[in-house]
Amino acid sequence: MALRDFFGRLRGGAPQPTPETPNPDPPAPVAEIPPPEPEAPPAEITPPEAEAPAKTGWFARLKAGLSRSTAKLTDSVVSLLHKRRLDDEALEELEETLITADLGVAASRRIVEGFRRTRFGKEVTDEEVKAALADEIAAILDPVAQPMEIIPARAPHVVLVVGVNGTGKTTTIAKLGRHYAEQGLKIGFVAGDTFRAAAVEQLQVWAGRTSARFFAPAKPGADAAGLAFDALTAARADGLDLLLVDTAGRLHNKSALMEELRKIIRVIKRVDESAPHSVLLVLDATTGQNAVQQVKVFKEMVDVTGLAVTKLDGSAKGGVVVALAQEFGLPVHVVGVGEKAEDLRPFAARDFARGLMGLD
Ligand SMILES: Nc1nc2c(ncn2[C@@H]2O[C@H](COP(=O)(O)OP(=O)(O)O)[C@@H](O)[C@H]2O)c(=O)[nH]1
Ligand SMILES: [Mg+2]
Predict the structure, then answer these.
(1) Which of 175, 241, 284, 313 has a CB 3.0–4.6 Å from the CB of 337, allowing a cystine?
(2) Helix (H, G, I), strand (E, B) or coil at 155
(3) Is the dihedral of CA 125, 131, 135, 138 positive or negative?
(4) pTM of the model
(5) 246: Cβ–Cβ under 8 A, 6 or more apart, which residues?
(6) Given the CA of residue 167, which atom of ligand 1 is nearest to it?
């Protein structure tokens, strides 16, 4: 029986879900993975109306979260095209504006070509511009808006979570874990970022709240691969459904990180040849184009199966999700618009595109 839920498809052996829930060369130092550039603090987020239906509440939150990106994008596009005929010059300026809003060269070109085909020589109203942009963006996002498929019958389904430090790996593990625990799955967290004591403690706190089994390193800096091996062995013996494995985001250089991640995968495969079943790369939207660079770097290291994009609430660079979709075509499973567990949500192309353009 296939059971669909918010975050993805749970297949086979899911224990009673709630009824309603439907480029760089290898030796380059890791320092070359651009670190997040912190932006100014995010605008205040209005919490969803308690009475409002879930979808409306969530959409309002997404829209509020994207408001800084929306302002950056729509203000410039609207002032650019206001009462102006869509001629070659206007379209060229539109392309530049979209690139500036982090949509990337390829996606910006594609969007402008769409405008050229359908609206060349016409004068368009501000609302038409926004709606048309939202449609073009949704068309780019649609193929990548795919839920993460969790198959509890794999006992456990193993998700390896990778990404640069500070992007939100540990928080995302905690939020995903809580969600699936609520679906009735037996969860385990593996604190594979063994060098940072704070990272281990952070995950332990979440494990306590979630009633997840927690697998900690024997001592700080203990071998992450050994930990993953022991954790998966125990998880199989205990009949866990889902094992979420945290990893370090930065070692002293890129080849060390690659070696570590590959070693974790190698030893996991000794316990279950089909694992890891998902390799989730977590990206921080506030880093804009650096996120694009991070995908390139991590794709060279491991077989990334999908993306989570966090901190859309704090970013004016949410347009980068469009660049990621166009450039890599990797599934975007979930997006984060805040620090609370309910702020991690499945990625929906049309909602995101309309939210980004400030439309309802
Ligand atoms: N505003 C906001 N903060 C987030 C989001 N996701 C994670 N964070 C915060 O980002 C910081 C780094 O997250 P963490 O999970 O420790 O990153 P890690 O180093 O990749 O494990 C923490 O303070 C999180 O609370 C999000 O979607 N929105
Ligand atoms: Mg962490």
Answers:
(1) 313
(2) coil
(3) positive
(4) 0.88
(5) 161, 169, 170, 173, 189, 190, 191, 192, 193, 199, 203
(6) 20
Residue 278: strand, helix, or coil: strand
3-state SS, residue 81: helix
Q: Hey, what amino acid is at 318?
A: G
Name the CA dihedral angle for 344, 349, 355, 358, rounded to a multiple of 10 degrees. 170
Interatomic CA distance for residues 271 and 242, integer angstroms: 15
Q: What is the pLDDT of residues 231-285, one digit of tens each?
A: 999 999 999 999 999 999 986 788 999 999 999 999 999 999 999 999 999 999 9
What is the DSSP pairing of strand 242-245 with strand 278-284? unpaired
Count other Cβ atoms within 10 Å, centred on residue 307. Answer: 27
pLDDT single digits (tens) 320-339:
999 999 999 999 999 999 98
Ligand 2 geometric centre to CA of 250 (Å)? 10
Q: Which among 339, 342, 343, 344 is the best mutation to test ligand 1's pocket, defined by most ligand atoms within 8 Å of the CB?
A: 339
Structure tokens that stand for 216 in this block: 């900690």
Q: What is the CA radius of gyration of the chain?
A: 21
DSSP states along 93-135: HHHHHHHHTT--HHHHHHHHHHHHHHHTT-B--HHHHHHHHHH
φ, ψ (nearest 5 deg) of residue 334: -140, 155
Does residue 249 line the site of ligand 1, with CB under 6 A? Answer: yes
